[in-house]
Design goal:
This protein is of the alpha/beta class. The chain has a single domain, classed as STAS domain (Transcription Regulator spoIIAA), CATH 3.30.750. It has three helices and seven strands, in the order βββαββαβαβ. A five-stranded mixed beta sheet has the order 1-2-4-6-7. Helix 1 packs parallel to helix 2.
């Protein structure tokens, strides 16, 4: 399994276990976000600490998660960004849109 989810007190932690978040696995991440949304999960933390690469389909999955959480009145937080992934998000100007924390545990303060 490429992704795992763990229910916390007031959010769900989604962990990526892929070195590259790309077209081969981003549909699985999108599907997980949609299922979480259908089960009334509004707050999601996506831990990308094990992913050192992300392409446009990966960014698309991240943005879908963000939109679903916002539409449900919740929050979407990215954590554990590797330097290459952080750079892509900054180049795309998405750091102005997305909430980003260094470690998943630090996301608790957003909920």
């Amino acid at each position: 399994m490429n992704f795992d989810q763990e229910a916390k007190d007031n959010y769900t932690l989604v962990s990526a276990f892929v070195p590259k978040l790309d077209a081969t696995n981003s549909p699985e991440l999108k599907a997980m976000f949609l299922l979480l949304n259908k089960t009334s999960v509004a707050n999601i933390v996506l831990d990308l600490s094990k992913s050192s690469y992300c392409d446009s389909s990966g960014l698309s999955a991240i943005l879908i998660g963000n939109r679903l959480c916002k539409d449900a009145g919740g929050e979407f937080v990215l954590s554990g960004l590797q330097p290459n992934v952080r750079k892509l998000i900054e180049i795309s100007q998405l750091h102005n849109v997305l909430k980003i924390v260094d470690k998943a545990e630090a996301a608790k303060s957003h909920f």
